[in-house]
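dumping this here before i forget
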Amino acid sequence: MNEHELDHLLADVRRDATAPSAALARLIAAEAVDQGIEKPKQSRRWMRRGVVVPVSIGALALSAATTYGAYQLSIPPFVGTEPGVERVSEPISVDYTTEKGTVLDCALYLEFTNVSQTQRDALNAMSSSPKWKGFGQRIYDGLPAANRRTQIGPEPLWSEQVTEAVYADALESVPSLELRADDDTASIEGATTRCEYPEGQR
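structure:
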């Protein structure tokens, strides 16, 4: 989506400014999908969010946040965030293969707020650490047998354990960072995990 297309999108939103927020959200999301999202044809996607809820685009329709929200919908993981919340540009790979051979290509995107440039760089650099090699698989292998039966999408307990481990690593690796601070302190606000697997696998 280029600048001209975004201007056109915002103009459409202004004309519909009296519509309910939900309708405006659907309008912008649909426009963003039509104009900016490239969808792999041979994959399925699953996303599991942390505590951060998607941005209410309708409530921000006439602000700069709308443009940022539309932009977020046009790039992986194709999910918006609350106003003021950023997301890493380099996700952490947490791939794993189920006991039945289903390969899930998963990536975890940390979401944060009020960080300095140094902290932002450190959060983005986390993805390059060798500690994540095989990490998703180790979490899966340690699940109870009943939880390992889930073959489609990230298993809930797996997702919870992966997310908590990444939170802990971020808090240890990045100075002066907190988890969901109530004030203006630099903090981790949540995460989005996006998984794909080849069409036809179960």
